[in-house]
Amino acid sequence: MPVLEVTQLQLKGVTPSSPALLESLSIVRGILKTQSEFYSCIDDPTLIFILGLWPSLEAHAEFLSSTHAGEILGPQEAMLEFRWAVHVGLNDMTALPLEAPVLSLTRRTVNDGDVDAYKKATTKEEQAIISSSSHKVVSGWRLDAAEGSHEALLFSGWTSAQASAVFNASRQTEMHCDDHVATGGLYETLEVHHAWNLERSPTATLH
């Protein structure tokens, strides 16, 4: 099953707009054939995200354990420091809201007994996001989570980071939102990141 790799990296001695950074990322993408997209974190510009498609979780693991991994990724070590990586099932990169000026990535660790309730709440949440943002929404479960752990990921597209924040705030204060993930107390931890595509102009994405 095809999987989407989402990796967070810390920049070292370069900025998101550095030509050397984008050139290095593009070279690796061309070698690995992962259709990767590169995003700069709006909330913390020292972080970037790489989203890439692999034929399977095993295929990515095999690459990382091979001698080729060091040869291919080695040149990036002076510019990038690994933070974390997660994998979620995805058949095609075009399913993601890549056309949106801002990509929002939400990670939630879901309580063990609340998985079914979370699924129902997320379905309604996705419908609300689509109505508000007019961009695609994709969600899924982390495939490489620790045994007994349930981590959900949600990707949504927005015109700006502020538009995403306004939506989240409005959902929190709605009178009739028992279906809302947050009000239901259906998760243990939450991370939300907003980012813009490094291969496009960041105009109007920061506010």
Can you characterise this structure?
- The model has no long low-confidence stretch (mean pLDDT 91).
- An eight-stranded antiparallel β-sheet has the order 4-1-3-2-8-5-7-6.
- It folds into two domains: 3-93, Alpha-Beta Plaits (2-Layer Sandwich); 95-193, Alpha-Beta Plaits.
- It is built from five helices and eight strands.
- It has 207 residues and is an alpha+beta fold.
- It has helices spanning 19-32, 57-64, 67-73, 115-133, 161-173; strands spanning 3-11, 37-41, 47-54, 80-89, 102-110, 137-141, 151-158, 187-197.
Query: What percent strand?
Result: 25-35%
Which CATH-level-2 architecture of the largest domain?
A: 2-Layer Sandwich
Helix segment count? 5
Secondary structure class reads alpha+beta
Run of helices and strands: EHEEHHEEHEEHE
- Which descriptor suits the 3D outline? globular
Protein name: ABM domain-containing protein
Summary, kept brief:
The chain contains five helices and eight strands. It has 207 residues and is α+β, with helices and mostly antiparallel strands.
Helix and strand layout, with pairings?
Blueprint: E1 3-11, H1 19-32, E2 37-41, E3 47-54, H2 57-64, H3 67-73, E4 80-89, E5 102-110, H4 115-133, E6 137-141, E7 151-158, H5 161-173, E8 187-197
Task: Identify the notable features of this structure and list them briefly.
Alpha-Beta Plaits; 207 residues; eight-stranded antiparallel sheet; 5 helices; single chain; alpha+beta
